[in-house]
Amino acid sequence: MSQIYDRVALIGLGLIASSMYWACKRDGLVGEVTGYAKSTETRDTARRIGLCDRVCDTIEEAVKDADLVVLCVPVGVMGDVAAQIAPHLKAGATVSDVGSVKRFVIDVVTPQLPAEVHFVPAHPLAGTEHSGPESGFAELFDNRWCLLVTDDQTDRTAADTLKSFWIAMGSNVEEMDADHHDLVLSVTSHTPHLIAYTMVGVADDLRRVSESEVIKYSASGFRDFTRIAASDPTMWRDVFLSNKDATLEILGRFTEELFALQRAIRQGDGAHLHDYFTRTRAIRRGIIEAGQDTDAPDFGRGAS
Amino acid sequence: MSQIYDRVALIGLGLIASSMYWACKRDGLVGEVTGYAKSTETRDTARRIGLCDRVCDTIEEAVKDADLVVLCVPVGVMGDVAAQIAPHLKAGATVSDVGSVKRFVIDVVTPQLPAEVHFVPAHPLAGTEHSGPESGFAELFDNRWCLLVTDDQTDRTAADTLKSFWIAMGSNVEEMDADHHDLVLSVTSHTPHLIAYTMVGVADDLRRVSESEVIKYSASGFRDFTRIAASDPTMWRDVFLSNKDATLEILGRFTEELFALQRAIRQGDGAHLHDYFTRTRAIRRGIIEAGQDTDAPDFGRGAS
Fold first, then answer.
1. Which 257-296 residues of chain B touch chain A by CB within 8 A?
2. What is the pTM for the complete model shown?
């Protein structure tokens, strides 16, 4: 594939940034990729494993002359990082991000950026429960969705180039507005994560069921929750605080439904339960047909 | 491996029974395995795919002369099935089951069985979201736990033989009492399933987020819930109705914790969220160390 940007700067070198770097290298998409991380340890690790063509010791150096700067930092510090890079950005550069929440990021980043820079927020729907510079791999985005947040103020050339970049890294790309993004993601990702964290916390608290039993007998159901609940705590704290309204709305609906099922159990209403469980089964079929998962029976046994 | 039983009867030919059959055949554990299913269609399918050495058209024929009869039917019909087979059991035979709830099964099955038959309830902690006679595979139980429910009334010879049978099919075996089993499973399996069903139901109801979007953007978090929520509706209805007390207790604790996290989100208490998410991460590490899952980063990408 041909080169899309001369120079890309990755700010924050965790799972997403490191996977972006390896995906860029796989396909020769960028002339030079610079990288910066706040922690010396992360920068040392990046240098040791060859992550980024050049790891910079200052954020100014990393973004200097970059055609694209991607903020790969927790949502809670996006505004501060945008303020730090703003004076050093090349005129006409594109700034993007990979945050899981979009309205909040737009609200904190946009006021920091100079007028001659194009901000095109993005959210690759890909991840693992691992984090850090050593967790990335080139295939992370293959056949996953990347959502670009655009509106009638968006610079189309900047957006189209960013779109071709994500497609070249393996993603399918769609555009949507920020509020709709935040609601959809609250349903498909944020609230499920909160619920998984909660269930794992309940198990941890329950003294009559010793920890070793919870762990030993985790195969059916709980194991998948622990996988979700092992995700990066800082990232998820920021997601819930910055997508508060949608999360609280979906949580409210969740609690309502859960109480209805709880009442059905208490009253022995088997028909209600059976109908409900039959309806949810159809959604799974849709996901397999949409190619977002396989039909292989791996439940309870991991990726092996 | 050497033969453990001369004749085993599998009653109900779904995922567990079909996997048991293939595991028996893999290792030559049984002289002859007979099978029975209530539905003609299931019996025809079993015959077509070579499931069981002999598929019987009546339950009497299937259990006749069997050394071990395994009830692989939904928990809700265990009592009826036990009553049907009781007059036809060989003296000294062992009856077992594979139900996900144990106190209820013991309460409904035990009174039906003749005194000269040994009942040793069991629960293999293995499964997929698939069901039916074609969903089984010989490796389902490999390195999974199978819990035998025993007490001081248990016939030790019957229990030890059944234990060696499950070990030969690939399982690790532990014994525990029925009530403790039901509480542990409520935490590690039953309540997580109910929660997953609920979350998928919420997504299905939410009209502003179209079904196709929920399906398209399911990669992070929600996808794992849909996998769980695709499990057999009849089986799960019976689990919740027959393990009502433990499920309602764990659900109560879950709701309590969820409300505390919800309040932290509403109040912007990031420290509470971060602490909670850090604590749950450690449990995941324990599960990987216990060998019940792999560390491979498959989250969001399926078994492929």
1. 257-258, 261-262, 265-266, 268, 270, 273-274, 276-281, 283-287, 290, 292-294, 296
2. 0.81
